[in-house]
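Submission checklist for the structure archive. All mandatory fields must be present; incomplete records are returned to the submitter.

[x] Identifier: ATP-binding cassette domain-containing protein
[x] Organism: Aeromicrobium yanjiei
[x] Residue count: 527
[x] Sequence attached
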Amino acid sequence: MRGPQVESNGSQTAGASVTKGRNALSIRGLSKVYPGTRALDRVDLDVRGGEVLGLCGGNGSGKSTLIKILCGVESADAGEVQLGDAVIAADEIKSQAMHELGLRVVHQDLAVFLDLNVGENLMLGAGYPTRIGPSVDWRSVSDRARALIDRFEIEATPRTLLRDLPIATRAQIAIARALQDVDEGGGLIILDEPTASLPVHEARILHAAIRRLAAEGHAVVLVSHRLDEVVALADHATVLRDGRVAANLAGDKLTERELVHAILGGRTEMAQARIKVRPDSPTVLQVDDLSAGPLQGINISVRAGEILGVAGLLGSGRTELLRALYGDLSIDTGTVRINGEAVNFTRKDQAIAHGVVMIPEERATGGIFPTLTVDENMNVSVLRRYWRGLFKQRAMTRDVDQLRDAFKVKASSGSVAISTLSGGNQQKAVLARWLRLDPVVLLLDEPTQGVDVGARADIYANVRRLTDAGSAAIVVASDLEELAQVVDRAVVIQHGVIVAEVTGDDLSAHSLSERLYATDVAVASGR
């Protein structure tokens, strides 16, 4: 039976009705239909105070729609939501009412301001304390910030600039900002891919923060594609697939294997047979004694048919290596050869003309054209092919339709804006765009960041098809398990220097971790 509707009158203390061990959030029969797509289909979900619920699913499974409805950004078509003691018809959810009941969301982009300090960022959540008149009471800002830093065990001071902090600490500040006006143990917080861009050692900092939130009695919904952290942190997990609840897993059933099975509707393996590149295979890319930006004395070679992995922490120079090869970072010294020809790219178009293409880490700003359609994004690299006096629209439409199918890009049609697609489908569309050029060298920086396990397998299958045809690829990835599965050989970079190469049977996440986190270069080099 439907309970009383919540009014946004501000009279309720945030989170006052959420109690440890009791349901903080109950969702019943939540449904949402977009034109041509059933985004959510009678979804039920529960999370109690003091629990961590893992919310998993492939891109396009309905996770984002669910969060938008709970935040009042989207309106549901049917269903009911209970938050604490308040019961609300899902089509009547208002953001202000949910906020007053203690719901908080920390999104993947964090929405922190790097040129402001910790205290200033924290006060943006609850408002700056003022003296008489409009002037800010900076002493109170510092005192409040210090109290929050202590409460949430953040390694920073009120005056530390955000840009000087690790991303994991910035995420802690975003969480503290969100929960500062919620009673301890009184809130429901949704963390949307909080560790997607974090290396392992920084992710551990955030894992500890999540455990503390649950220990205080908060209900935590953890949305993550990192299935190992869901298993490690969650008390139970709900898996969405095609807008429906595919599984509720807990206890012995909460394993990575069962999560993958539920997400995909069947078991699949991303690991591919490691290719033994023939010693007489031609060297496609040769780099000798390259220095650029933070890079010093880089020497690598990649043969035709080979995928080379690059492992490194944030700031190690791993991204700069790709940028230097792509003409996006000036080379100070050294030589780069493509198929034996010495090159010195100073612009990206020069690299593309020589068959070197790059898919950057920042998909939204450097990969897709968000205002263009899916088909326009996939065609933009080859438009000249269709000019033969007159523009060959029919041929282009035929080709791009086949391309969407070949790369398994899920979209209601090619004419929808690419920004409406899930991250995995956006990435597959970007990959399809560049592979249409038949590149000699493909550079990929975190190609599966924020992408579900099914889309990851599709992405790497297409990369392998490219290298099987005689091209070469270099992959930068923070996920060492993934990197070890999909590459033929890997190098480890620290402080702009390649300190190790891992090949053959030694190529594993464990061996990469040992070298990556070694503090002594001699140890990292295996000497």
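[x] Structure attached
Curator remark: Residues 326 and 352 are 8 Å apart (CA to CA). The domain at 283-524 is CATH 3.40.50.300 (Rossmann fold).
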